[in-house]
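Read as chain and fold; for instance:
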Amino acid sequence: MRTFIFIISFLAVALFLGFMSAQYTYSPILFQSLVALVIFAVAFINIEWGLYILIFSMLLSPEIMAGSTKGGSLERGVTLRLEDFLLIIIAFSWFAKNAVHKELGLILRTPLNRPILFYMLACIISTGFGIMAGRVHAKTGFFFVLKYFEYMVVFFMMVNHVENLEQVNRFLMCLFLTCFAVSIVGMLQIPGGGRVSAPFEGETGEPNTLGGYLVFIGMVAAGLFLKAQTLKTKQLLAVLILAIIPPFLFTQSRSSYLALIPACLVLALMSEKRVIAVSMILIFLTISPFLLPAAVKNRILFTIKQPEESGQITVAGVRVDTSTSARLISWKEATRDWVKHPLVGFGVTGYGFVDAQFPRILAETGVLGLSAFIYLLYSIFKLTIMTLKEVKTPYLTGLTTGFLAGYVGLIFHSIGANTFIIVRIMEPFWFFAGIIAVLPQLEARETSRLKA
């Protein structure tokens, strides 16, 4: 039956495209609409195909300037990417399919449903008050709040769609292939000098975003490597990890370097030979000044050795560079100004740009939003620990351990970036979070199948 529906749908789309091409000349809008229609049809027939398309678009899609918007936190402008549109199309297809087949169920109950809802409501309420008070431009606030939550749709699609461990393996392969491709592109940028960033990042690029993404995916791969039971699997994961290292180093992202340390420590503490693993990390940190590339060492030392310029501040008697100074000043201002609207904040985009997650959430959504966000972070941590206790298969234990290490790394990364609202980091993160949420059920289902 499914094959019959696919053939009929394919023929219908083909006939429609042929008719339209014969009647009209080329139009970018018409072409984009037809592509969207095809993706919608593909995802409607099989949501898994749509998710594969989304995975490869996460880091390999171009950005599009969304035009001028108004708001205090928009100093870097507003951009949309292909995966933004793909996610909307695939999500609508998912909603439509659930409307037709009500037995599928729209949202599976997980320990994260309530924390996600609380955080969403906090952002909506804060932004609503900001719009009414004139602090937030309505259109800008609406689209930014919508963009904040688009990656959470990935989580709900995953927990409702994944049915077996074979699917998990296919998704992991696609996610790792995407990371490998991004790493190769990053390595090709190194000889040109400058900081490495992800493909299609525009003129300036976002090395900090790429650094956070590579820390997270690298930790997941490392967790699987530690528990892999076949030589082939270990070799493939080793190739991926080795491919990640050069572009990661040459992002010259100090937030990412910081994130790597606690992430590795978590991975070491969760390993069977934790004393040896932690000792090796400490030894590497000690001798790293002799091993790291000059560009990396210079970038780290630049924090305290930048020539004196206006805008620098002194911390504990040490003068820090202008970039770090600007961050620290914005943190101080955000924590100072939030008392003007302590409960709901200024609203999303209602406050000036703050390049750090927690001060930004405090300023934009107040105590209400920050409490909801911390509750969400805690719930993710608790869910991961519960999964780690329940799964028995070494492969799944490695996946969960790697996710936990990467998650801790992202929390530290958010000290110097808006990590948890960066789509290129959060889409892969919530993809994996959806997998982690259903791993115990999938393992139990697989065990029952093998016993039958």
Q: What stands out?
A: Strands lie at 63-65, 79-81, 314-315, 318-319. Residues 31-447 form one domain. The longest helix spans residues 357-390. The chain has a mean pLDDT of 82.
